[in-house]
Design goal:
Number of strands: 5
Mean pLDDT: 95
Low-confidence stretches: none
Helix content: under 10%
Order of helices and strands: EEEEE
Shape: globular
Strand order of the largest sheet: 1-2-3-5-4
Largest sheet: 5 strands, mixed, barrel
Number of helices: 0
Distance between the termini: 46 Å
Radius of gyration: 15 Å
Length: about 80
């Protein structure tokens, strides 16, 4: 049996929960500029599947890569790390 490769896991903040069973998660990455060595923040927005509609605006969530669930959804909410205040 061929082993399945490790799935990517990311942590981000929910910026939209308007759709049914879908949340938009914004992931912030800090990278160093190759020439100037300054730290730059890069942001990426992902559509993630939330089966129970449990995540809400401002929550910090952990998402994992999964098979394509729709045209734009390739991530799934695994856990809610911290609730919004």
């Amino acid at each position: 049996m061929a082993e399945r490769s490790a799935r990517k896991v990311r942590t981000g903040v929910v910026v939209s929960d308007a759709r049914d069973k879908t949340v938009t998660v914004e992931i912030t990455m800090s990278i160093r500029h190759p020439k100037y060595a300054k730290t730059i923040d890069r942001r990426r927005r992902l559509q993630a599947h939330d089966e129970l509609n449990d995540a809400h605006l401002g929550d910090t969530v952990r998402v994992v890569e999964t098979r394509p669930l729709s045209k734009t959804k390739h991530w799934r909410v695994v856990e809610i790390v911290e609730r919004a205040r």
